[in-house]
UniProtKB/TrEMBL annotation, chain A:
This is Imidazole glycerol phosphate synthase subunit HisH. Keywords: Amino-acid biosynthesis, Cytoplasm, Glutamine amidotransferase, Histidine biosynthesis, Hydrolase, Lyase. GO terms for cellular component: cytoplasm. It is found in: Cytoplasm. Pathway: Amino-acid biosynthesis; L-histidine biosynthesis; L-histidine from 5-phospho-alpha-D-ribose 1-diphosphate: step 5/9. Heterodimer of HisH and HisF. The active site is at C80, H183, E185. GO terms for molecular function: glutaminase activity; imidazoleglycerol-phosphate synthase activity; lyase activity. It catalyses: L-glutamine + H2O = L-glutamate + NH4(+); 5-[(5-phospho-1-deoxy-D-ribulos-1-ylimino)methylamino]-1-(5-phospho-beta-D-ribosyl)imidazole-4-carboxamide + L-glutamine = D-erythro-1-(imidazol-4-yl)glycerol 3-phosphate + 5-amino-1-(5-phospho-beta-D-ribosyl)imidazole-4-carboxamide + L-glutamate + H(+). It comes from Alkalispirochaeta sphaeroplastigenens. GO terms for biological process: L-histidine biosynthetic process.
Automatic annotation (TrEMBL), chain B:
GO terms for cellular component: cytoplasm. It is found in: Cytoplasm. Its main location: cytoplasm. It holds the Pfam family His_biosynth. GO terms for biological process: L-histidine biosynthetic process. CDD domains: HisF (cd04731). This is Imidazole glycerol phosphate synthase subunit HisF. IGPS catalyzes the conversion of PRFAR and glutamine to IGP, AICAR and glutamate. The HisF subunit catalyzes the cyclization activity that produces IGP and AICAR from PRFAR using the ammonia provided by the HisH subunit.
Length: 203, 257
């Protein structure tokens, strides 16, 4: 199966499924490690809590399969929580994470007086060009809802920044990994365009 | 920069969209799925569906509406109306809604907010609050339930704070005094609540023209504004409202792409 969506009981899988259906892209939603190993492209969606998510991934034996998939060099897309747990650890529940990228997921600082969660539409600024981001217009907005965000150790792993009080990483990635803190599946036509880019991406 | 959201509200009765004035005299205006798609295409930032039937049959029809909407529109939407248990919430979220909105049921059973947040994440849990001006209350506003018909003993400000501490990730704040009047949002109430809580506040009730949204973003400190009649009856469009706001320095999402 070309696109495999990892089911680890993390939030709204249906909206990701709807987006791929709309794009007429066949996909499989699965919690089976063997199916992940057969995937051409892997999507790790997620809304929820980092520690709980890691517990489910571990209990279902999915972690070695995800690592193996990544090592083969096929395209991987993390969404929201999926952009946080690919790092080494998360402030949320002080959870050890997948470690596919160096760094940790950190919380917005409530002392800055900003509303948390960061909820709504915000623009992003690509750091350079990347096939996943394509010809993104400067004014493209994406839908965010989160209290934590990815903070890669190497700033070179940040593909696009967003501003909420301070700059934070809205898209991270390296080699065959891309991950968005926002929800492309809920970001209108701009989001669908990124999903289409992902389907065509050959890292 | 985080943009101010325009949230289009669709009241659904037996699977059809209606809009009433002060919750009475509902007039049917159409198919929720077609309307949702139309608002999506014209740049609404978010949709809210209120199920105002909430009978057993109505509930089943609503779940089917949610499924169809989720398949066709790629912006967030929430569903409220009669959700009284974790199972009700789960059903709506599984059908594809991003958020569930709890109003009267949260007053009757505040644990729903806590349990919902711990089970689904607080970003999914919206407190819908109807407030009525009442000088007898410490904040000057009383919480009312059952579509504005039943006064409670709750002070609006205190209830907002408590709901957030229990697990609400957003508040849709509806002024019963302003609702359906099209004379403008109640900015004083909106600012008071918005400044008192750490979560986003969506202003609701009273929108009649684009100036009202400008007021509630500037003076009401709202994070989002809910509109219904002013767009349902074709007097204004979402892109028109956004153009108006953008020209006055309010950050809004471009309506196309």
């Amino acid at each position: 199966m070309s696109v495999v969506i990892v089911d680890y009981e993390a939030g709204n899988l249906r909206s990701v499924e709807s987006a791929f259906s709309w794009l007429q892209e066949p996909f499989l939603v699965t919690a089976e490690p063997e199916e992940i190993l057969r995937a051409d492209r892997l999507v790790l969606p997620g809304v929820g809590e980092a520690r709980a998510a890691m517990t489910v991934l571990e209990a279902r034996g999915l972690i070695p399969a995800i690592r193996e998939f990544i090592s083969r060099g096929n395209p991987f897309l993390g969404i929201c929580l999926g952009s946080q747990i690919i790092l080494e650890e998360s402030d949320e529940g002080d959870a050890p994470c997948l470690g596919l990228l160096e760094g940790r997921a950190v919380a917005f600082d409530p002392r800055r007086g900003l509303k948390i969660p960061h909820m709504g539409w915000n623009t992003i600024t690509p750091r350079g060009s990347h096939p996943f981001l394509g010809d993104l217009s400067r004014e493209s907005s994406f839908y965010f809802v989160h209290s934590f965000f990815p903070s890669p150790r190497d700033p070179g792993d940040v593909l696009a920044w967003c501003d909420y009080g301070d700059a934070f990483a809205a898209v991270v990635g390296r080699e065959n990994i891309v991950a968005t803190q926002f929800h492309p599946e809920k970001s209108g036509e701009a989001g669908l365009r990124l999903l289409r880019n992902f389907l065509q991406w050959k890292p | 920069m985080l943009q101010k959201r325009i949230v289009v509200c669709l009241d659904v009765r037996d699977g059809r969209v209606t809009k009433g004035v002060r919750f009475k005299n509902n007039v049917e205006i159409g198919d929720p799925v077609a309307l949702a798609r139309q608002y999506y295409e014209t740049g609404a930032d978010e949709l809210v569906f209120y199920d105002i039937t909430a009978s057993a049959e109505g509930r089943g029809i609503m779940i089917e509406v949610v499924r169809q909407v989720a398949a066709q529109i790629f912006i967030p939407f929430s569903v409220g109306g009669g959700l009284a248990s974790l199972e009700d919430m789960r059903e709506v979220l599984l059908a594809g809604a991003e958020k569930v909105s709890l109003n009267s049921q949260a007053v009757k059973n505040p644990d729903l907010l806590r349990e919902g947040a711990s089970r689904f994440g607080r970003q999914c849990i919206v407190l819908g609050m109807d407030a009525l001006a009442d000088q007898a209350m410490p904040s000057g506003y009383r919480v009312v339930i059952n579509g504005g018909r039943t006064p409670t003993e709750l002070d609006a400000l205190e209830w907002a704070r408590r709901a957030v501490s229990l697990g609400a990730g957003e508040i849709v704040l509806n002024s019963i005094d302003a609702d359906g009047t099209r004379q403008g949002y109640e900015c004083r109430l909106t600012r008071m609540i918005s400044e008192a809580v750490s979560v986003p506040v969506v202003a609701s009730g009273g929108a009649g023209k684009p100036e009202h949204l400008l007021e509630v973003f500037r003076e009401g400190a709202a994070d989002a504004a809910l509109v219904a009649s002013m767009v349902h009856y074709g007097d204004y469009t979402v892109p028109g409202i956004k153009t108006f706001l953008a020209a006055r320095g309010i950050p809004v999402r471009e309506s196309i792409g």
